[in-house]
Design brief:
Structural class: mainly alpha
CATH class of the largest domain: Mainly Alpha
Number of strands: 0
CATH architecture of the largest domain: Orthogonal Bundle
Helix content: over 70%
Strand content: under 5%
Largest sheet: none
Distance between the termini: 38 Å
Number of helices: 9
CATH topology of the largest domain: Helix Hairpins
Radius of gyration: 68 Å
Shape: elongated
């Protein structure tokens, strides 16, 4: 199955796996959403029933409150009955016994009855009946108070008449109280009936809510069982498909990794990579193989350039030795010229001291001047040869700089290849990161590829540093040679000036032979000319010393170039090409 999957690219495989997993998850989510929708409907129905139950409970609470109010009215009515009986008793006792305290208690009972009736007037249904009772009570109290007054005045007949009327009012009052009690009792019975009905409705609603809860719980259990069944059926399939896709990616990557590690450990660029399949891994293997081929070609070119660099360094070393030898000879010749100039000065002093020997000394000086002219001509000729040799050295150094630049271009090509490989590895790592856990193995391999790509880049950086050092030394050597070239040109000019001065000295000696009168002036001029010649010769000698030092430096640079070329060749020998 893995070989069959490798017919498709990695992106197609990963997207197919993702689509499969998404389909599985969407199916489970759809089933779960259907179950949630059903649960939502049942919950909404249950909430409606609970709301109805709460409404019934609130109604039941109102019924309880209403019954409590009616029951309280009943208790107040019973207290009114008791107070009414007490009032009748104390009025009867007071009239019969004419006892003052009984009348006082009767008045207190009447006042208390009045207060109790006032409390009952707050009830809307029994308020009218209570007001009638209060009116009757007022009439009864007036009659009884009038009868008591008549008794106290001794008017018994009038008092009995008032008492008879009062008894009628008391009877009427008693009947009214009975009507009020019956009314309250009826209201209490009605409240009990409504309360029982509310309780029955509440119990029925509670049973409905309980049934809905049980049905919802059973449906949730069924949905969970079906969901677990779907999960158990799809999970092995998903794991199998994911494993196959991952193996189709990680297995060829592992093979590529081991092949690249073998190439890295053995430094064998001739080993070929396996190019199986038709996916991105094959493309990456093919690109890596092409990179190795280009790297082999580049290393071969670098080896050839290193050989050429070694040869150029050896030639530069040989030229530097020749320059050193010639500068040494020039220094010796400059010493001879300095000695001749010193002798010429001594001769001039002798001429100034004695005029008698002037002619002989003039001849000797003329002879020495002729010899000095020959030496100066030889020095000028040597300087011209040294200048020509410096041209050859400068040409060699220029070629060395050009070869170093060529090496830098080759290193740029190698660095570009390494950067491209690193970029490919980075892209592979990005794709692996997008794949998540399935691309973790691919990310490891991509990191190994990037590590391998960094090694040629590091070697290239080391070679680049060596080439830059070589170019720097070449530039220093070129600058030194240019400076020495200028010094040599100056030495040639000084030699020509010295030759001109010697010609002038010879002319002056000829003039000195013709006349002895101007010996003193001619001798002074000759002394000045000799001093100038001596200074010029000292300058030539100093220039010769500088040329010698520069030649030594040039030979050292050539040796460094040779060592660098040898090291570069040793580094290249590590790779099998």
């Amino acid at each position: 199955m893995i070989s069959w999957l490798r017919r498709f690219n990695v992106t197609t495989r990963i997207m197919s796996l993702a689509c499969f997993l998404v389909i599985v998850m969407v199916s489970q989510a759809a089933f779960f959403m259907v179950g949630l929708d059903n649960s939502k409907q049942r919950s909404e129905l249950q909430l409606i029933k609970v709301a109805e139950e709460n409404q019934l409970i609130e109604n039941e609470a109102k019924q309880f409150v209403a019954r409590a109010k009616v029951q309280k009215l009943q208790q107040q009515a019973q207290q009114v009955q008791k107070t009414f009986s007490d009032m009748l008793f104390w009025y009867f006792d007071g009239i019969v016994t004419e006892y003052y305290e009984s009348l006082t208690k009767a008045t207190e009972s009447a006042d208390l009855l009045q207060q109790q009736l006032n409390a009952l007037t707050s009830d809307s249904q029994s308020g009218t009946q209570v007001k009638q009772i209060m009116d009757t009570l007022v009439e009864y109290r007036e009659l009884m108070n009038t009868a008591v007054g008549y008794y106290q005045q001794g008017k018994d007949n009038l008092a009995e008449s008032e008492i008879g009327d009062a008894n009628l009012e008391a009877k009427n009052l008693n009947e009214q109280l009975l009507v009020l009690a019956n009314m309250i009792q009826t209201r209490l019975a009605h409240a009990d009936t409504e309360l029982v009905a509310a309780l029955e409705k509440t119990l029925a609603a509670s049973k409905v809510v309980e049934q809905l809860s049980e049905q919802a719980s059973e449906q949730v259990d069924r949905d969970l069982k079906v969901l677990w069944l779907i999960l158990l059926l799809t999970l092995p399939v998903a794991i199998g498909v994911a494993t196959a896709v991952i193996m189709s990616i990680t297995r060829p990557l592992s093979v590529l990794k081991h092949q690249l590690l073998a190439i890295e450990q053995n430094s064998d660029l001739t080993q070929m990579l396996s190019l199986d399949g038709r996916d991105e891994i094959r493309d990456m293997s093919e690109a890596t193989q092409n990179l190795l081929l280009k790297l082999r070609s580049t290393l071969d070119q670098v080896g050839l350039l290193a050989n050429e660099l070694n040869e150029a360094a050896k030639k530069g070393y040989s030229v530097s030795l020749d320059t050193l030898k010639q500068s040494t000879e020039q220094q010796l010749q400059s010493a001879g010229i300095a000695a001749a100039a010193t002798e010429l000065g001594a001769s001039s002093e002798d001429i100034s001291k004695t005029a008698d020997q002037g002619l002989i000394l003039v001849k000797e000086v003329s002879k020495a001047a002729n010899e000095g002219q020959l030496d100066v001509q030889a020095t000028a000729k040597t300087m011209h040869q040294l200048s020509a040799q410096f041209d050859g050295v400068e040409s060699s150094v220029s070629e060395l700089v050009q070869h170093s630049s060529a090496i830098g271009q080759v290193l740029d090509v190698i660095r570009g290849i390494a950067d491209q490989t690193n970029l490919l590895a980075l892209n592979a790592a990005i794709e692996a990161a997008r794949a998540g856990d399935q691309g973790r193995g691919f990310a490891v391999v991509a990191d190994e590829v990037r590590t391998l790509a960094q090694r040629p880049s590091q070697s290239t950086d080391e070679i680049q540093k060596m080439v830059e050092a070589l170019q720097q030394h070449s530039k220093v050597a070129s600058s030194s040679l240019e400076s020495n070239r200028k010094h040599v040109d100056d030495s040639v000019k000084l030699s020509e000036q010295a030759e001109t001065s010697l010609v002038r000295i010879i002319a002056e000696l000829v003039e000195l032979e013709s006349t002895n009168q101007v010996i003193a002036s001619i001798t002074n001029e000759q002394q000045n000319a000799v001093t100038e010649v001596d200074e010029n010769v000292q300058k030539i000698r100093a220039l010769a010393c500088n040329v010698e030092e520069q030649a030594k430096d040039s030979s050292g640079v050539s040796e460094s170039l040779t060592d660098m070329a040898d090291k570069l060749q040793q580094e290249l020998k590590v790779f099998r090409r």
